[in-house]
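I have been asked to look over a protein record a colleague put together. Alongside the sequence sits a line of tokens, each denoting a local backbone shape. Please read both lines and tell me whether the tokens look consistent with the sequence. I do not need a full report, just your reasoning and any doubts. I have pasted the whole thing underneath without changing anything.
>
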Amino acid sequence: MRQLFQLTGRNWLFLVLSGIATGLSWICYFRALQLGEASRVAPVDKLSVVFAIAFAALILKEHLGWQQWVGGALIVTGALVLTIKG
């Protein structure tokens, strides 16, 4: 059977590092849920989407459409409203 793709040592390194980062992220998220209210923790967690949008535009030089800008702005606005309201 022919392999569709091969993983290099560098690919494996980034997969392992990604797995570690994901695990640590979940540990931090659940700790935050223990310390604070879910209604305040979850919006802050969703700001990671905004960071991904920003990194895509700034670092990867991806062209973002108005939908991405509006979506990111809505996420930031929602997080701010829930933070200030609480």
Q: What stands out?
A: The chain has a mean pLDDT of 89. The CA atoms of residues 51 and 84 lie 21 Å apart. The radius of gyration is 17 Å. The longest helix spans residues 9-35.
